[in-house]
Amino acid sequence: MRGVVFLGDKELELRTFEDPEPGPGEVVIEMKASGMCGTDLKFYRAPKGFGVLESLGASCPTGDAVISGHEPCGVVVAVGADVGPLVAKVGDRVMVHHYLGCTMCNHCRSGWSQMCDVMPIVAYGFTAHGGHAPYMKAPAITLVKLPDEVSFAAGAALACGSGTAYQGLCRLDLSARDSIAIFGQGPVGASATQFAAAMGAEVIAVDINPSRLEFGKRMGATHVIDSTKVDPVESIMALTRGKGVSRAMDASGTAEGRSAAIRSAAAWGCVAFVGEGGDVTIDVSRDVNRKQLNILGSHTFSTKGLSECAQFVADRQVDVEKLFTSRYALEDAAEAYRTFDKGEGGKGVFVF
What we know:
Blueprint: E1 2-8, E2 11-16, E3 26-35, H1 38-45, E4 51-53, E5 58-60, E6 72-79, E7 93-96, E8 99-100, H2 106-109, E9 122-123, E10 135-139, E11 143-145, H3 152-158, H4 161-171, E12 179-183, H5 187-198, E13 202-207, H6 210-218, E14 223-226, H7 232-239, E15 245-250, H8 255-264, E16 265-273, H9 284-288, E17 294-297, H10 303-316, E18 324-328, H11 333-340, E19 347-351
Parallel strand pairs: 12-13, 12-15, 13-14, 15-16, 16-17, 18-19
Antiparallel strand pairs: 1-2, 3-6, 3-10, 3-19, 4-5, 6-7, 7-11, 8-9
Helix pairs in contact: 4-5, 7-8
């Protein structure tokens, strides 16, 4: 089979690999969809020779032949020894929780293997082969069943970007009583907009890119704000009669987005940081203490959280496929990532 390998300096290639065979406790999944995520761009853009998985506390040479793709979704086609039928069987529709830890610590046992404190985690698509290939081998413990009502493409989105957005909203305990400002309308922020609207909240989408603001509107935003033309905090205060929003989320990963999220939140409000990287300077007394504000960090999701997200999508009939503005065959990977790197439109996915 052939799989996508990032070379660095915005280059990639399709390399030939042996078809995988499952070992004890493992399965092989025939890919049906494999999503493209903003995290991929860190390795796509990295200098040739070496890149560092700083957020994971591990390193991986970008020149190594590691198949990319950490949003895998497909059908189990082979099962190794020691995998019981209740865990996985041939024909199961599955997503992959793309982390593996020691499996025994409290974090791993609760489904938060990316927080394993015993050993460096495995991250599929980065430090181990991922889903940008016809087949993927994975430990059965990483599998999450995909409801029949949810498409494979939607399942791929849930397996990282959209699942991350859902978890952030859960951390905020969002409900129909709330108004929420979501800063950044890339794939994660737009997913948060869609899910927040499905939860009944009033959604204010903020971005600097007109095409992504239009995308946020299509995903269910009640209001959109172009922060290059107006002060987003002032605009949010005007929309909320001077009170601010009860919930805010930063999905931009920028200092400006984070600061505005904090300043736009109402007294007793709650803010979640979902976007990765960068920093922010906070006026603690004015913007946090005197507003009795809660600020939360939210990083991806657990296996249980991914399962709950998929069931939410099935039960509420959320059209996650609206998130995709581009679909590609694996042979078009170079064109796909050149387009994705421009930061316009929605999400891309490889379909098999």
